[in-house]
Amino acid sequence: MMNTSHNFRFIERDYWYHKALCDTDHLLPGQIDDMLDEAHSHYADYTFKFYDDGSVIIIDNDTNNRIKPRELTGAVYDFYIRKRIYLIKTNLMEKQLQYA
């Protein structure tokens, strides 16, 4: 049986931009861009490969280095946990339908 992966890219700056855009009616997109540019000099840009066997590979797209899940913090960690839960639920539902 093949161990397939589900690949996701997480760009932290895009996450914060979307969050600010959705959470306020008072800021224009250009203002949000300016705030984000001033707030941080570096935002995480990671590729996550979640495998059906439960393993995960996380690659820092800026350095091409592997990141361990325990090294994640903040928005990146939140993304990782939410995707992990989503994939577990999806896998369980697929198994229930397969054996129902």
UniProtKB/TrEMBL annotation:
Protein name: Uncharacterized protein
Domain of life: Bacteria
Organism from which the protein derives: Paenibacillus alba
